[in-house]
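Q: My labmate handed me this sequence with no annotations at all. I'd like to see what the chain might look like in three dimensions before we decide whether it's worth expressing. Could you predict it?
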Amino acid sequence: MKHIVLTMAAVAGLSGVYGCATPPVPRIYTLQGEMPAPASDGAPDMVIELTPVALPERLRRRQIVVRQDGAQVQMLEQHRWSASLGDEMQDALSSALQRRLRAVDMARGGIAGKPDYRISVEFSRLDARLGGAVQAEAAWSVKPTAATAAQVCLGRFEQQASGAEVSDVVAAHQRVVAQLADAIAASVRAAADGVLASSCSAG
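A: Here is what I predict for the chain of 203 residues:
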């Protein structure tokens, strides 16, 4: 009888320990890569306005979402973006475009007035697989404020993760953002020259 009582006490003690255990702290990631030094000082070449980036509904959250076999997706509760993925994408694209175009984003810089170019981006697909690739399909438009028409563009982007860890998938997301920023910047430069970029049509 004494042995049973001691065993029950031990079990109760362990239950108390595990019941009071601190839940694991989620790991937090960002789409922002390293911030390189500006190429040169002085006034920006242009003012842009990047409107809020549109994403599929399942991605409008902080949890990192990965695709599994078939139609299944998994939300990684212990691996999260530092903000919602839409806000992360907005910040990362804005920073990348400002660097590539020597521009200032009035939506981020608190600048009043009209931008030289208004840029809108919408993802129709952004899929990631652990140990696989990050694949994206996006449409974007570049509209000069002084013009009535915009360039409407489509692109597909893919980057293979270098490993099977979540951090590898995050790095692949960052490279996809860089690819997209390159394509958008090319569209802006084409608009400035009065021509259509290769992936764009007049809208």
